[in-house]
Specification:
GO terms for molecular function: argininosuccinate lyase activity. Belongs to the lyase 1 family. Argininosuccinate lyase subfamily. It comes from Piscinibacter gummiphilus. This protein is mostly helical. It folds into 3 domains: 83 residues, Orthogonal Bundle (Fumarase C, Chain B, domain 1), CATH 1.10.275; 236 residues, Up-down Bundle (Fumarase C, Chain A, domain 2); 98 residues, Ribonucleotide Reductase Protein R1, domain 1. 62% of the residues lie in helices and 5% in strands. The chain is built from 20 helices and 6 strands. It has a two-stranded antiparallel ribbon. The chain has a two-stranded parallel sheet with strand order 3-4. It has a two-stranded antiparallel ribbon with strand order 5-6. Helix 7 packs antiparallel against helix 20. The structure holds arginine. The site of arginine has 10 residues, from helix 7.
Length: 465
């Protein structure tokens, strides 16, 4: 192959081809305009491979020095924007390799010894994804910290807890927020687990069957910070389960974000009026002057759709593929890139926005007073007086019916009226009919009693420190 042959990818294969690739096919098969994003990983992978080739005596120390010099130049050019990406050279790998050969000659052509783009691309995507995971983990921690901070100021803030979107029982707003902290904590745990399986080295698998050169794969893995080496060459070049798994993590995380976003939208609406968002997170309407819309929360909710869509895309991409590498796999990148970008931006903006919410304590409490949220407490009170729970439930249903008819809260029914429902009711009943009495009573591990919530906040603070 002459030194300038790689300039034209249509000639890169061999003399076997009798006509150049059509322009349409070239554009259809090229990936450089999106996979150039992998350039850093591609160069890191090539340098680690070259160092190992030299240490194993497969290339000469002079070749390694030339490769290192050329890659330093290429790195500088890409960073400055001077690097010229060519569609003719199809992808990030061929673009960088061709430029290297242009810069340093034969050493550039020796770099691909014992390697194929199949194990190269699998390595690049894993390296890139691992580093992205390492930037997402702190963002998940920030999200949790923001929620814990708001929770800390709102242990004694009471709002109605809902089931079926109907007022159920009063809960501490801090407790409500800490539910999301639990979700994001599990997301972080999941991501850490995904990282283990992302962080394994495919290089050395070559095209599919391994290579006849005496490579030291463990050495390359160590240089690149991989936890281990893929143990089967066919699997190494073909599967993308690490990408699917990451997307599953991302989808679950976005579903959690979306649920929180949905609550923010509801709480912000005039009908709830539980919170307010800072103006910088809202937009106005071009026609209705009174409007302040929670666009950020709505978009976060909406963007969960594209992330879940990417998961479906990746899974579908793999399902019909026979071993080993197929060009289908080139389609793994755009969904993966967009997933990372979307999750990163969403976590950042949501953490910021949540950290700055204004909590309207009185409105929350007023809402908790509607809907007979302490009815369960009255039933529990009767159980403590000796009634079987099912009977107590029935007694309270009558009391609630009466309260509804009179348009008052349970705590506003006169003692004599309450005693009409059951003789065992005494004046201490009013302690359990208040919102605070109801909260304090739920002093079980994981419950909403302020004492429990404070312990949880302390646990989270320690965990996130
Ligand atoms: N651009 C390709 C991809 O993303 C690189 C690997 C190409 N390998 C091949 N045998 N055509 O998967």
């Amino acid at each position: 192959m002459s030194s300038n042959q790689l300039d034209k990818k249509s000639q890169a294969w061999s003399a076997l081809f009798s006509e150049p690739m059509s322009e349409l096919v070239k554009r259809y098969t090229a990936s450089v305009f999106f996979d150039k994003r992998l350039w850093k990983a591609d160069i890191a992978g090539s340098l680690a491979h070259a160092e190992m080739l030299s240490a194993q005596g497969i290339i000469q120390p002079k070749d390694l020095a030339d490769i290192q010099r050329g890659m330093a130049q290429i790195t500088a050019d890409i960073e400055s924007g001077a690097f010229e990406w060519k569609l003719d050279l199809e992808d990030v790998h061929l673009n960088i390799e061709a430029r290297l050969t242009q810069l340093v000659g034969d050493a550039g052509k020796r770099l691909h010894t014992g390697r194929s783009r199949n194990d190269q691309v699998a390595t690049d995507v894993r390296l890139w994804l691992r580093d992205e995971i390492d930037t997402l983990l702190p963002l998940l921690a920030d999200m949790q910290k923001a929620l814990v901070d708001v929770a800390d100021r709102n242990v004694d803030t009471i709002l109605p807890g809902f089931t079926h979107m109907q007022v159920a029982q009063p809960v501490s707003f801090a407790h409500h927020l800490l539910a999301y902290v639990e979700m994001f904590a599990r997301d972080a745990e999941r991501l850490q687990d995904v990282r283990k399986r992302v962080n394994r080295l495919p290089l050395g698998a070559a095209a599919l069957a391994g290579t006849s050169y005496p490579l030291d794969r463990e050495r390359v893995a160590k240089t690149l910070g991989f936890d281990g080496v893929c143990q089967n060459s066919l699997d190494a070049v073909s599967d993308r389960d690490f990408a699917m798994e990451f997307s599953a993590f991302a989808s679950i995380t976005m579903v959690h974000v979306s649920r929180l976003a949905e609550e923010i939208v509801l709480w912000m609406s005039q009908n709830f009026g539980f919170i307010d968002l800072a103006d910088r997170y809202c937009t106005g309407s071009s026609i209705m002057p009174q409007k302040r819309n929670p666009d950020v929360a709505e978009l976060a909710r909406g963007k969960s759709g594209r992330v879940v869509g990417h998961l479906m895309g990746l899974i579908t991409l793999m399902k019909g593929q026979p071993l080993t590498y197929n060009k289908d796999n080139q389609e793994d990148k755009e969904p993966l890139f967009d997933t990372v970008d979307t999750v990163r931006d969403t976590l950042r903006i949501m953490a910021e926005m949540v950290g700055g919410i204004t909590v309207k304590t009185e409105a929350m409490e007023r809402a908790a007073l509607k809907g007979y949220a302490t009815a369960t407490d009255l039933a529990d009170y009767l159980v403590k007086k000796g009634l079987p729970f099912r009977d107590a439930h029935e007694v309270v249903a009558h009391a609630v019916k009466q309260a509804i008819a009179s348009g008052v809260d349970l705590s506003e029914l006169p003692l004599a009226t309450l005693q009409g429902f059951h003789a065992s009711i005494t004046p201490d009943v009013f302690d359990v009919l208040t919102l605070r009495g109801s909260l304090n009573a739920r002093n079980v591990l994981g419950g909403t009693a302020p004492a429990q919530v404070r312990q949880q906040i302390a646990r989270h603070r320690q965990r996130l420190a």
